[in-house]
Amino acid sequence: MEAPTLVVVLSSLLLILSSKQTSSAQLTLGFYNNICPNVEQLVRSAVVQKFQETFVTASGTLRLFFHDCFVRGCDGSILLTSPNGKAEKDNPINLSLAGDGFDTVIKAKAAVDSDPQCTNKVSCADILALATRDVINLTGGPFYQVELGRRDGRISTIASVDHRLPRPFFNLDQLNSMFSFNGLSQTDMIALSGAHTIGFSHCTVFSKRIYNFSPRQRIDPTLNLQYALQLRQECPLRVDPRIAINMDPVTPQKFDNQYYKNLQQGMGLFTSDEVLDIDERSKATVNLFASNEQAFESAFVAAITKMGRINVKTGNQGEIRIDCSKVN
Question: Residue 312: CB partners within 8 Å, gap ≥ 6?
Fold first, then answer.
């Protein structure tokens, strides 16, 4: 290889490496310190006000963040609307997302933009990440530092949701595969499942487990029988799709480790919940989190921080949306 050719090749390699570093820029703590120094207080104030109006704010916002990150990455694409009903939020699996979660982001965005120093300088994706931390903390969960610097995505399609979100009937292998695809470990998956401690579900999602599990068994044998009968009372056979059931029947409005204690008693609402205690590969982690709330909280913070990095857009990628529901 002649010297001039070698120089060209090396220069090209340097350009490629440089572009890769730019495209994989990291999120940072204090990203808005010199842009919008009050961003965390502004978001928190709006979230507190919304939370005081309805508790659904907490579970709705947390689930919104999860559904955003797992589909196209944490880029706020779940917030986009489509005039022809073809956005992510229009996918059947997302139709149950609580409107209060979306409203929380809208109100937090308005609060941030009300500060002239911050107007249209903070992404909707970052606002959702901050609001999620705040609702976790407001329900008794840990307060943690949120990495920021995300940009908002411009694409949101109904088809992109398919096969990207875990289903309530998943087994451990299916759960691990989906989380691993997003760079999350089994421990991360079990910790994030703990968010169901403040979640709720509609009867239709789990009715088969309490009425028609198999030709020989009406009730799923992995369900605590007393719990199953209680669920039958709350969810009549002619299921009203509007009925919502707390996923943690013991402390439904507190972010704690009760979810794991429930699993030990056969009180996991979904098959994908109860399998964590049934499968020997995950049972030890469930037992740890059930007996040690600090261990759960530490693992949850580590997991949600990792989740918040999934396929983020930074630098010149994406945009800062003026309206969270539509591209600029």
Answer: 27, 73, 74, 75, 125, 149, 150, 151
Does the annotation count 67 as an active-site position?
yes
Q: Kindly report the pTM of this predicted structure.
A: 0.91
Do residues 220 and 228 make contact, with C-beta atoms less than 8 angstroms apart? yes
SS3 323: strand
The closest alpha carbon to 155, from 56, 240, 223, 68, belongs to 68
Structure confidence by residue, pLDDT tens digits, 91-141: 999 988 999 999 999 999 999 999 999 999 999 999 999 999 999 999 999
Residues 6+ apart with CB under 8 A from 36: 42, 112, 115, 117, 118, 121, 122
Q: Report the distance separating Cα 32 and Cα 39, nearest Å.
A: 7
Torsional class of 12: left (φ above 0), alpha (ψ -120 to 50), beta (otherwise): alpha
